[in-house]
Amino acid sequence: MASKSVVRRMLAGVAALMIVAACSSPEPSGSLLYSATRSWSNGMVERVEVYADGKTIMSHGDYDERVTLPDDQMSELAAAAALGVDAGSSSDDPILGVTIGTDTEVRPAALTPGSIAALLNTLLDSHTLHE
């Protein structure tokens, strides 16, 4: 009888962990601030969306990842976005398209060091702004 009680407690603990994991998924609740689409010459397309609450959704082909950016990284993105998006070259691989808020997408965007395009590109690679 004692083993049935232990099993029940273990199952209850596993169920509780599953509920916590499902509830802690970083779903965006703020407005979309920045997005970038990275298109490779082999046809692969990746996308990143950063929301006002720091929630970030990255799509790498058929695979999605979700992270929450800390305040310092959100401030870094905001400072870079305030400088706008410079046009890049259509010969780049990958081609990066960047949108700030509801502005028109700049495609191709230049990957100037420290720019919003370069930061979003790093985010797609490293899932953080600081490798």
Written account of the structure:
The chain contains three helices and five strands, in the order αββββαβα. It is an alpha+beta fold and 131 residues long. Strands 4-3-2-1-5 form a five-stranded antiparallel sheet, covered by helices on one side. The longest helix has 22 residues, at 2-23.
Keywords:
131 residues; alpha+beta; 5 strands
Outline the fold blueprint.
Elements: H1 2-23, E1 32-39, E2 45-51, E3 55-60, E4 63-68, H2 71-82, E5 95-100, H3 116-126
Antiparallel strand pairs: 1-2, 1-5, 2-3, 3-4
Sheet with most strands: 5 strands, antiparallel
Ranges where pLDDT stays below 50 over 5 or more residues in a row are 14-24
Shape: globular
N→C terminal distance: 53 Å
What is the number of helices? 3
Cα radius of gyration in angstroms: 19 Å
Residue-averaged pLDDT, rounded? 84
Percent of residues in helices: 25-40%
Give the amount of beta strand, in percent.
Answer: 25-35%
Q: Return the structural class.
A: alpha+beta
What order do the helices and strands follow? Answer: HEEEEHEH
Number of strands: 5
Strand order of the largest sheet: 4-3-2-1-5
